[in-house]
Design a protein that fits this description.
By secondary structure, the chain is α/β, with parallel strands linked by helices. The chain has 18 helices and 11 strands. The protein has helices at about 20-30, 35, 50-60, 70-80, 90-95, 115-125, 135-150, 160-165, 190-195, 200-205, 215-220, 225-235, 275-280, 295-300, 315-325, 330-345, 350-365, 375-400, and strands at about 10-15, 40-45, 65, 85-90, 105, 125-130, 155, 175-180, 245, 255-260, 265-270. Helix 6 (about 115-125) links the parallel strand 5 and strand 6 (about 125-130). The protein starts with 9 loop residues before the first strand and ends with a helix. The structure holds NADPH dihydro-nicotinamide-adenine-dinucleotide phosphate (NDP) and magnesium ion.
């Protein structure tokens, strides 16, 4: 008689476990049985090595990796006696991503997430994609990586997760449009003159969602929506003209798909990333999660309005990048990351972020052509260098006045 083998727990890794997406992912995993139900292989972070070590110990991870080589000693000593491996640096992140897992959360912020996420995709893991920069900068390559590896691509960004939930792939020919909702951020009602003097703290105070600082500020400038338009084009293979944006201040309708018969299907829920994360973790099953249930009587109303592309030029920049294709997304994103950091560091004003991205896009030709990983990194780096020069020029001018 042969013994019945026990089903193996699903193996997972979380890249960016110390961030907002990462912590929410671990919270979902905890609710769904923690280390009894899942085998946690790699957890990663950067500066917050104390939290990373605590997470690794609590969830019995095999390895904890910090992206910052200078934090290796701190991580190693925080893990002393636990038997958990410690590693540091960007090569270590990629090595961790090459470990065989069933499911991998891509929750690193920014372009730094591309290399490990591509490695995990090539290795064949299902990719729960929060890091939108992967698709914005290297959409085609990323799809190729997923195809090579044979895993599934499961969108976590709330809008794209919503679309995934209501996009009828059997009726793809009758999908007319995708309608991304946007809260409008904290400055929805401010004039351009008022926006010129806002501080990073004001910009990071998102009205509905609790997220990392960078994405919160990107929501205030609507660069987050700009990235999401490009992300949606790649994820759902849409023409740029099929992607619309509507302001919906309550953030309850997470996005919609419009069909050729006039029907519009929407996904609604409380603004809580755990729904999208849980959906991507147990897809196609739906998990039981302790998120707030919508009370429609209490909500009373849902508002929608057209975005103002004059005050939020990031949306037009996204359309430009989508129409040009090729490396335009990498250029837009690289310039945006530099401008965002310069705004956070007080070097430039809020409105100057879009000016810098527009100038970088004007100056760097980004036409079509085959896109290789080297070309993506080169476009990203050229955009960053130019954006940095523009930031320095502006800072020097403002010091002189
Ligand atoms: P956070 O800033 O909260 O977390 C970022 C994570 O990435 C942390 O673990 C951080 O480590 C790590 N990290 C930072 N810089 C690097 C680097 N250079 N190399 C490797 N790791 C790094 O971001 P969020 O969780 O808000 O966002 C993560 C991604 O998910 C972003 O791409 C964002 O656009 C996307 N997203 C987020 C949503 C949200 O609700 N937060 C919603 C939809 C999409 P440490 O903190 O230890 O320094
Ligand atoms: Mg989003």
């Amino acid at each position: 008689m042969t013994e019945r083998s026990q089903p193996q727990p699903r193996s997972i890794s979380i890249f960016g476990s110390t961030g907002s997406i990462g912590c929410n992912t671990l919270d979902v995993i905890d609710h769904l049985g923690g280390s009894e139900a899942f085998r946690i292989r790699a957890l990663t972070g950067k500066g917050n090595t104390d939290l990373l070590a605590r997470q690794a110990i609590a969830f019995g991870a095999e390895i904890a990796v910090t992206a910052d080589e200078n934090r290796y000693g701190a991580l190693k000593s925080a893990l002393a006696g636990s038997g958990i491996e410690a590693a540091a640096g960007s090569a270590a992140l990629v090595e961790a991503a090459e470990r065989d897992v069933d499911w991998c959360m891509a929750g690193i912020v920014g372009m730094a997430g591309l290399a490990p996420t591509l490695a995990a995709a090539n290795r064949g893991a299902d990719i729960a994609l929060a890091n939108k920069e992967c698709l914005v900068s290297a959409g085609e390559l990323f799809h190729r990586g997923i195809e090579t590896g044979g895993g599934r691509l499961l969108p976590v960004d709330s809008e794209h997760n919503a679309i995934h939930q209501v996009f009828d792939t059997n009726q793809r020919h009758s999908v007319e449009r995708i309608i991304l909702t946007a809260s409008g951020g904290p400055f929805r009602a401010l004039s351009a003159a008022e926006m010129a003097s806002v501080t990073p703290d004001m910009a990071a105070a998102h009205p509905n969602w609790s997220m990392g600082t960078k994405i919160s500020i990107d929501s205030a400038s609507m660069f987050n929506k700009a990235l999401e338009m490009i992300e949606a084009m790649h994820l759902f293979d849409m023409h740029p003209d099929q992607i619309e944006v509507v302001i919906h201040p309550q953030s309850v309708v997470h996005s919609m798909v419009g069909y050729s018969d006039g029907s519009v299907l929407a996904q609604l829920g409380a603004p809580d990333m755990r729904t999208a994360i849980g959906y991507s973790l147990t897809y196609p099953e739906r998990p039981d999660l302790p998120v707030e249930r919508l009370d429609f009587a209490a909500l009373a109303r849902l508002d929608f309005e057209a975005p103002d592309e004059e005050r939020f030029p990031s949306l037009a920049l996204a359309r430009r990048a989508m129409n040009s294709g090729g490396l335009s997304g990498a250029v837009l994103n690289g310039a945006k990351e530099v401008a965002l950091e310069a705004f956070i560091d007080g070097e430039i004003g809020f409105l100057e972020m879009a000016d810098i991205v527009a100038t970088v896009m004007d100056r760097i030709g980004t036409g079509g052509g085959a896109v290789s990983i080297d070309a993506v990194y080169e476009a990203d780096s050229t955009a960053r260098i130019l954006a940095r020069e523009l930031v320095s020029g502006r800072s020097a001018r403002s010091l002189a006045t």
